[in-house]
Design a protein that fits this description.
By secondary structure, the chain is of the alpha/beta class. The chain contains 21 helices and 31 strands. The strands form seven sheets. It has a seven-stranded parallel β-sheet, with helices on both faces. It has a six-stranded parallel β-sheet with strand order 16-26-25-17-24-23, sandwiched between helices. A hairpin with a 4-residue loop joins strand 19 and strand 20. The model has no long low-confidence stretch (mean pLDDT about 90).
Length: about 725
């Protein structure tokens, strides 16, 4: 039996520490166990990441102080995954270990909720129970009728205080025991159970492909390319049933919390209580209990956003990554992992099948199919042979010429909204910008209200009558007059969802309008409440940002309007065209998902851009082929891996000097196959009060970049106040 444990502690030092295992803890310590250890002058928590019989520091080792819990919190396979994440994404191992375990589980004081439960000692009959005082008799009759109840429930139902209950306990007629109470995020929600639907030919072929991959000795990754409304979710459900029939579990990832209620309802309707949910909208207690339900084998299916990937599902048979192209799968803090790619790696480690589903797969996934790394299943027809929505692109330049000014809504879109409202059909309007207007501007001198901490203009929010920075969250009062020239007249330039909501109120005063963006969806159940109201026809027009652009299925939506569709094309990023194409295709897919035909009206100032035209004709392969050639010429992903180094600090000269020194040392040891740029200001040069400089590296093999970077990190000390972030496989250059 091993006598030494290798432990990573809860502070970021990116190294393991050896500790002696005392004899009385030998049987309880394993890889993945959470332990308390003496560290310098204090006691810290950490995790055992390895066991050994030898240490180079044998004479100086301290002993482990204690073990937290009876069994390891991190299974061996997930610990291997944590090490891969730390190595691949160039992150401290402590960050990776912290990532694979929810804070609600690992933090001090995390435990199950306990309550006192009362029950009759003899439920079949008790003569002594028939001649009791009235209040005691009421307690007994309540327990006979309802069975065991918590003491608080028993007091409420029987109308008694705690005194008669305690008396019955002393008489030996009632027992009171402490019991674990699970905090259930689905409490009180009644769902009708559903049976598997009959599949269309393409669905059946896709399911057969996935099941065949699951049954292989070494299951691989399958890209499920299915147009919006083609029935991908039913294929997921039946593939998961195949896993359950084999005694295996499954994980389902969705990119947005807003999609989770609808997805969870469909999966719970099919599979019942064996579904657990993990996402950030749950309370800590709910997340703690849901995670333990999975760990204890009470739930075989885990559903949630990015972090649900690390659920401790036993005998994992299938991982589904829905809307696999979504950038929300990429974490924006260390370790900056992409859940889609880590899912593929977990599949390899645990020998399970991974399904990546999307109507608009990422070019990396599409290229992996071309290169034979992934299998392919295609569903290019909608369920029940429903037609794809008709998409029309409106040139807003012509609209502005006709009206003599730029307008928010084209005549076609306004008429389309009126037509739908008149026949009780629903409308979705999409604009990827919240707030009332993009900026506050003085027409006299040109002054624009800018954030003092970031190199961006502030957004005006009318309801709060404030200027907000969408980068750092700073708030300012709206000035009465221009701070530069004193002129009292301001122009509100651009538009946001709040302004669209106001204009809609004037255009359609009788319509019931709801807005979904990060300003309105702040309460725990905001998503579910609004989506339920929309589903039941209590909302006529749903207006929102990206959170309404994908995954939602409402049969009565027959019109989708996209405002300022080319907004995302103006971002200085080689992925701008791909993101615009994906967004337009996904939001268009919300229309015509029922018996009624759907229509999409796209408003743009550059209507002939290849991304917009490809989305209009739903030409996924044509767009991919064109964009892949552009990327091949410039050696951008997927033909290389991209690593972005970002230096940040309050003093611009110090940040620039630190980036230059780091770059000089790195250049000396980089292989010739690595292409790299000199340090330059980031496109967003200042954010949250910090100046930002970047170095971009590209190479076919990630390790040829990350190993030199790690070496320089250890030898090149950054000045105080300057930090470095390493983003491997960066999705954004901002």
């Amino acid at each position: 039996m091993a006598s030494i444990a290798k432990v990573v502690v809860e502070i970021s030092l990116d190294r393991e520490f050896d500790y002696r295992i005392p004899a009385h803890l030998q049987a309880s310590i394993r890889v993945g166990s959470q332990v308390t250890v003496p560290f310098q002058s204090r006691e810290l928590r950490g995790f055992v990441v390895g066991l050994a019989n030898y240490s180079a520091f044998a004479d100086k080792l301290k002993e482990i102080a204690g073990v937290v819990g009876e069994k390891p919190l991190i299974p061996d396979e997930i610990m291997k995954l944590a090490y891969w994440i730390a190595d691949y994404y160039c992150a401290p191992i402590e960050h990776a270990v912290r990532t694979v375990l929810p804070s609600a589980v690992r933090k001090r004081g995390a435990k199950h909720k306990k309550q006192l439960v009362a029950s009759l000692v003899n439920e079949t009959g008790c003569p002594a129970c028939d001649n009791l005082p009235p209040k005691q008799q009421a307690v007994v009759e309540t327990l006979r009728q309802h069975g065991p109840l918590t003491v608080s429930e028993l007091k409420e139902r029987s109308g008694c205080s705690e005194s008669p209950i305690k008396t019955l306990e002393k008489l030996g007629l009632v027992s009171i025991e402490e019991s674990t109470i699970l905090r259930d995020p689905h409490a009180g929600m009644e769902l009708l159970r559903t049976e598997p639907f009959a599949l269309m030919v393409e669905q059946r072929t896709a399911l057969d492909t996935i099941c065949a991959a699951m049954d292989q000795e070494k299951p691989g990754t399958v890209l499920l390319h299915g147009v919006t409304g083609s029935g991908k979710t039913e294929v997921y459900l039946q593939a998961i049933q195949h896993a359950l029939d084999k005694g295996q579990g499954a994980i389902v990832l969705v990119p947005e919390i807003s999609l989770t209620p609808q997805t969870v309802d469909r999966f719970r309707s099919r599979f019942g209580d064996c579904v657990a949910v993990l996402h950030s909208s749950l309370s800590d207690g709910e997340r703690h209990d849901e995670w333990h339900r999975i760990r204890n084998g009470e739930a075989q299916i885990a559903i949630g956003a990015r972090s649900a990937l690390f659920s401790p599902v036993e005998n994992l048979g299938l991982i589904v990554v829905d809307e696999e192209h979504e950038p929300t799968y990429k974490q924006d803090e260390s370790p900056r992992y992409n859940a889609r790619d880590v899912a593929v790696m977990r599949g390899r480690i645990e020998n399970c099948c991974v399904v990546l589903g999307s109507a608009t797969p990422a070019l990396e996934s599409f290229n992996n199919v071309r290169d034979g790394r992934y299998g392919l299943a295609e569903m290019l027809m909608r369920v029940d042979d429903r037609s794809m929505p008709l998409m029309r692109v409106v040139d807003m330049r012509i609209e502005a010429e006709k009206e003599g000014r730029a307008s928010i809504f084209s005549k076609e879109l306004v008429q389309g909204i009126y037509d739908r409202l008149n026949i009780n059909e629903q409308v979705i309007l999409f604009l990827n910008r919240r707030g009332f207007s993009a900026s506050l501007q003085c027409e006299k001198c040109g002054y624009v209200a800018e954030c003092a901490e970031c190199s961006v203009s502030m957004t005006y929010h009318k309801r709060a009558h404030k200027l907000l920075c969408h980068i750092c969250g700073a708030e300012e009062k709206v000035p009465d007059r221009c701070p530069d020239c004193g002129d009292p007249d301001f122009k509100y330039a651009g538009m946001g969802t709040e302004r669209i909501e106001e204009v809609l109120g004037k255009l359609c005063p009788k319509a019931r309008v709801a807005r979904m963006d990060s300003d309105t969806m702040r309460k725990k159940d905001s998503y579910r409440t609004v989506l339920d109201q929309f589903k039941t026809g209590k909302i006529d027009i749903l207006l929102g940002t990206q959170m309404i652009a994908k995954g939602l299925d409402f049969p009565n939506v027959t019109l989708v309007g996209v405002l300022h569709a080319d907004m995302s094309l103006n971002v200085p990023d080689f992925r701008a065209g791909e993101r615009t194409f994906q967004l337009l295709t996904q939001v268009a897919g919300r229309a015509g998902r029922g018996e009624k035909a759907g229509e999409v009206i796209v408003q743009a100032y550059t209507p002939h851009h290849p991304a917009i035209q490809a989305a209009r004709s739903l030409d996924y392969e044509g767009f991919c082929s064109q964009d892949l050639e552009f990327r091949r010429e410039l050696n951008y992903p997927p033909f290389s891996h991209l690593v972005l180094l970002t230096f940040k600090g309050e003093n611009e000269l110090e940040v620039m000097a630190a980036a230059d020194r780091f770059s000089a040392q790195l250049e000396r040891i980089l292989p010739e196959s690595v292409s790299h740029s000199p340090p330059v200001p980031a496109p967003l040069a200042r954010a949250k009060g910090l100046w930002r400089y970047q170095i971009m590296l590209r190479c076919e093999h990630t390790v040829k970049m990350t190993r030199p970077i790690r070496h320089v990190q250890q030898t090149c000390r950054l000045p105080k106040g300057v930090t470095l972030t390493v983003d491997v496989d960066a999705l954004s250059l901002l």
